[in-house]
Amino acid sequence: MEARHPKSSKTIMTDLVLPSETNPLNNLFGGELLARMDRAASIAARRHSRRIVVTASVNHVAFNRSIPVGSVVTVEANISRAFKSSMEIYIDVWIEDRESGRRDKANEAIYTFVAVDDTSRPVQIPELIPETDLEKERFEGALRRRQLSLVLAGKMKPNEATELKALFFD
Ligand SMILES: CC(C)(COP(=O)(O)OP(=O)(O)OC[C@H]1O[C@@H](n2cnc3c(N)ncnc32)[C@H](O)[C@@H]1OP(=O)(O)O)[C@@H](O)C(=O)NCCC(=O)NCCS
């Protein structure tokens, strides 16, 4: 199975915030943003693995800035690491100022997707080779984030999370 670079699966989705997608403060509803991020991440995971993919876990979401109605929102999904059947995906969310055209980072999230066959069984995926400094940094951290996610899901014992523990005790 041939290894792939993050750029071959990068997914960028740009869309408006409509009034029906907002909360009582006229800002984008959190669940709507989660769905947009899930969609972009799922396309990136499918491009990398070329398989059916499912969301296994939402590992981190930071709603740092509210996004007002009428905003132009860009959701960018990049695979940060591929394991055996699972992929960590970083999602960066940008909003665009109408007058200056400047893009500001509004939110970010980290999702895990798993490639599966027609019977929902996990299948092997290609390796990911990071190229840029940011891709390498996210690749390095992915192993401990995977361990944290598995520990929280009750699928790994804390004392087996070697890289995660090293973050606190080394
Ligand atoms: C995700 C799913 C395929 C995992 O199946 P499973 O039987 O737990 O399979 P495994 O334990 O072999 O795990 C498969 C991979 O997922 C990873 N994984 C499972 N749960 C995870 C979690 N909470 N966080 C991070 N990774 C996780 C495992 O580490 C493993 O990765 P690897 O193959 O790269 O080593 C299965 O739980 C599923 O189908 N869930 C429903 C998915 C869905 O419907 N999503 C939409 C939300 S409504």
UniProtKB/TrEMBL annotation:
GO CC term, one of those recorded: cytoplasm
Pfam families per record: 4HBT (PF03061)
GO biological process: acyl-CoA metabolic process
EC numbers for this chain: 3.1.2.-
A Gene Ontology molecular function term of the record: long-chain fatty acyl-CoA hydrolase activity
Signal peptide: none
PROSITE patterns: HOTDOG_ACOT
Keyword annotations of the record: Hydrolase
Domain annotation HotDog ACOT-type: ranges: 7-119
Enzyme class: hydrolase
Matching InterPro entries: Cytosol_ACT, HOTDOG_ACOT, HotDog_dom_sf, Thioestr_dom
Family affiliation: Belongs to the acyl coenzyme A hydrolase family.
Protein name (database record): Putative acyl-CoA thioester hydrolase
Organism (species): Kordia antarctica
Source lineage: Bacteria, Pseudomonadati, Bacteroidota, Flavobacteriia, Flavobacteriales
